[in-house]
């Protein structure tokens, strides 16, 4: 009987990478440390650009932006020098489990999604509108 196990192991070894000397199959490989066991946290620093889509030359064409996500939430301030009576709008957003977020301040808003270290969305200010994209560049 032992010889039959050895012959089986020899045949199996050719196709699967071998058996131990006692006829048992080798142990399974260790789990992949990079495999996700659940949704990744969106926390981190996101750097990107805002591209003007409404408002003309007063709004610029492309401006750098940074968003710091902590505990699944962030605070973003939109500077509006073209609107002296409302020179900034502040948004506090919480990222939902599906990666979406939205925050409103009066008639203005920021909304978008975060997925796999990439954030994208839209910002509507009082005089200007922007599309934006940002990538996670670090953690805290």
Distance between the termini: 61 Å
**Can you identify the CATH superfamily of the largest domain?**
Quinohemoprotein amine dehydrogenase alpha subunit, domain 2
Largest sheet: 6 strands, antiparallel
Determine the strand fraction and express it as a percent band.
over 45%
Helix content: 10-25%
Domain tally: 2
Q: How many β-strand stretches?
A: 8
Q: Kindly name the structural category.
A: mainly beta
Rg (CA only): 27 Å
CATH architecture assignment name of the largest domain: Beta Barrel
Question: How do the helices and strands line up, and which of them pair or pack?
Answer:
Elements: H1 2-16, E1 44-54, E2 62-69, E3 73-79, E4 88-94, E5 100-105, E6 108-115, E7 118-124, E8 129-138
Antiparallel strand pairs: 1-2, 1-8, 3-4, 5-6, 6-7, 7-8
Describe it for me?
The radius of gyration is 27 Å and the shape is elongated. The chain is mainly beta and 140 residues long. It folds into two domains: 1-30, no CATH class; 44-138, Quinohemoprotein amine dehydrogenase alpha subunit, domain 2 (Lipocalin, Beta Barrel). The protein is built from one helix and eight strands; from the N terminus they run αββββββββ. The N and C termini lie far apart (61 Å).
Keywords summarizing the entry:
2 domains, 1 helix, Lipocalin, two-stranded antiparallel ribbon, six-stranded antiparallel beta sheet, 140 residues, 46% strand, elongated, 8 strands, mainly beta
């Amino acid at each position: 009987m032992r010889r039959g196990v050895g012959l089986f192991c020899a045949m199996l070894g050719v196709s699967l990478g071998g058996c131990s000397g006692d006829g048992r199959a080798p142990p399974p490989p260790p789990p992949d440390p990079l495999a996700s066991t659940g949704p990744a946290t969106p926390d981190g620093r996101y750097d990107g650009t805002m591209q003007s889509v409404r408002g003309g030359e007063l709004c610029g064409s492309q401006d750098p932006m940074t968003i710091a996500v902590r505990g699944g939430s962030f605070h973003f301030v939109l500077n509006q020098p073209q609107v002296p009576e409302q020179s900034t709008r502040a948004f506090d957003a919480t990222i939902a489990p599906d990666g979406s977020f939205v925050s409103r301040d009066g008639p203005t808003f920021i909304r978008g999604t975060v997925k796999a270290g990439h954030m994208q969305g839209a910002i509507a200010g009082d005089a200007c509108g922007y599309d934006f994209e940002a990538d996670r560049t670090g953690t805290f």
